[in-house]
UniProtKB/TrEMBL annotation:
GO biological process, one term: pyrimidine nucleoside metabolic process
EC class: transferase
Residue intervals of the Pyrimidine nucleoside phosphorylase C-terminal domain: 345-419
Superkingdom of the source species: Bacteria
Official protein name in the record: Pyrimidine-nucleoside phosphorylase
GO MF entries: 1,4-alpha-oligoglucan phosphorylase activity; deoxyuridine phosphorylase activity; thymidine phosphorylase activity; uridine phosphorylase activity
E.C. numbers: 2.4.2.2
Keyword Phosphoprotein included in the entry's annotation: no
Any one annotated GO CC term: cytosol
UniProt entry keywords in alphabetical sequence: Glycosyltransferase, Transferase
Length: 441
């Protein structure tokens, strides 16, 4: 078998066999196939596309390029959740403990932030001593003991994806649905949970900017998960504006803790109820979403969800004092209050531009190894459709640099668009994708 023939076959629009896809991934990971040939095949895939079977085979080949994590020693139906990335998306921090408090094992290997989207691991490291690196035995023990473990991925998991993504990033082949889907799902399926919930973000702050593309990506990922024998569903959610009010690592941890205590922002709390009810259905703990929502609300109201977060922090070496007294979390030297210079309704808060402001403040990273300012970020006082008067507070900018604070203030006053009321009320949830149907709301 020759790489030349595989490239030519896909260039001409033909279907690649399972053996050809396996040959490519195995030999590329082993550095036998050079980058220039891998680039040629990626471009051929980008232009000629892959069908459902090819995409599933590509995902399997990437999974098989490294280690997998067997969770069979964890009792019960294990669930996992993945978000395609957003601004202010601290969902795992609150949702995981809620689900675990309902008696469902929630096991998640998370990532760090890159670009304008935040990372769960960075947020958790705002808590003094919290360990994100766990051995397999520690992960299993924690999940059996308290029903939850959140940690980083081993460097030996899906090395094929790591190599391919680096190449796609510099060859203009990132935004292909088959390549995106195989990248996301290979990482999720390498961790052998029983059920996967995908939160596909759509909007200005998401990778998928419009609903049509979001649906196609969700369908592809659900097909892969189902084809791999896992119960998989996807929800399509709004990422035009930041989720909740807080954007920035320690600020988001604080907001997640408040949500676990029943005092969270309305949109963020609602998203946790939506996703939580679906995870409880997947775990067979409840029969329908109403029952699931009731169970999630119960563990919030009786304090068990908050207690579960305390258990998580303690089990992973964190100082629970930082949870019980959030004033101990990293704090910025300067907090600037940005006020409205006009009266009207908030028409939009562009999530992507807010994420870029977070990077300027030091709360996000442009490249993988950039140092982070865990205290920096933005706390909004308004949401889209709110009415504001001249002089009302729009947000608070947390920074350790007056220069950066001033730069971000100048940008945010333009990003927070104020004017006539939007003619159509915003949606948090656009729909749901299962193996059987696409349901839009």
């Amino acid at each position: 078998m020759r790489m030349y023939d595989i490239i030519k076959k896909k260039r001409d629009g033909e279907e690649l066999s399972t053996e050809e896809i396996n040959f490519f991934i195995e030999n590329y990971v082993r550095d036998i196939i050079p980058d220039y040939q891998a680039s040629a095949l990626l471009m051929a895939i980008y232009l000629k596309k892959m069908n459902e079977r090819e995409t599933l085979d590509l995902t399997k080949a990437i999974i098989n390029s490294g280690e997998t994590v067997d969770l069979s020693d964890i009792k019960g139906i294990k669930v996992d959740k993945h978000s395609t990335g957003g601004v202010g998306d601290k969902t795992t921090l609150a949702l995981g403990p809620m689900v675990a408090a309902c008696g469902v094992p929630f096991v998640k290997m998370s990532g760090r932030g890159l670009g304008h989207t935040g990372g769960t691991l960075d947020k958790l490291e705002s808590i003094k001593g919290f360990r994100v690196e766990l051995t397999r035995d520690e992960l299993i023990d924690n999940a059996n003991k308290i029903n939850i473990a959140i940690c980083s991925q081993s460097s030996n998991i899906t090395p094929g994806d790591k190599k391919l993504y680096g190449l796609r990033d510099v060859t203009a082949t990132v935004d292909d649905i088959s390549l995106i889907a195989s990248s996301v799902m290979s990482k999720k399926l390498a961790i052998k949970s029983d059920a996967i919930l995908l939160d596909v973000k759509i909007g200005k702050g998401a990778f998928m900017h419009d609903l049509k593309d979001g649906i196609e990506l969700a369908k592809e990922m659900v097909k892969i998960g189902t084809g791999y024998g896992r119960k998989t569903i996807a929800v399509l959610t709004n990422m035009d504006e930041p989720l909740g009010y807080g954007v920035g690592n320690a600020l988001e941890v604080k907001e997640a803790i408040e949500t676990l205590k029943g005092r969270g922002p309305r949109d963020f709390t609602e998203l946790c109820l939506i996703l939580g009810s679906k995870l409880l259905i997947l775990s067979q703990k409840v029969k329908n979403e109403d029952e699931g929502r009731t169970r999630i609300k119960e563990v919030i109201n009786n304090g068990k969800a908050y207690e579960k977060f305390l258990e998580l922090v303690k089990c992973q070496g964190g100082d629970v004092n930082f949870v019980e007294n959030t004033d101990l979390l990293p704090k910025s030297t300067y907090i600037f209050e940005l006020k409205s210079n006009k009266e009207g309704h908030v028409r939009s808060i562009n999530a992507e531009e807010v994420g870029k402001c977070d990077i300027i403040l030091g709360a996000g990273r442009q490249v993988k190894n950039s140092p982070l300012d865990l205290s920096a970020g933005i706390v909004f006082s308004v949401k889209v459709d709110d009415f504001v008067k001249r002089g009302d507070t729009l947000c608070y900018i947390h920074s350790n640099s007056i220069e950066k604070e001033n730069e971000v203030a100048e940008k945010l006053i333009k990003i927070i668009e104020i004017g006539e009321k939007n003619p159509v009320e915003k949606k948090l949830l656009y729909g749901e994708v299962t193996k059987d149907e696409v349901k839009l709301y």
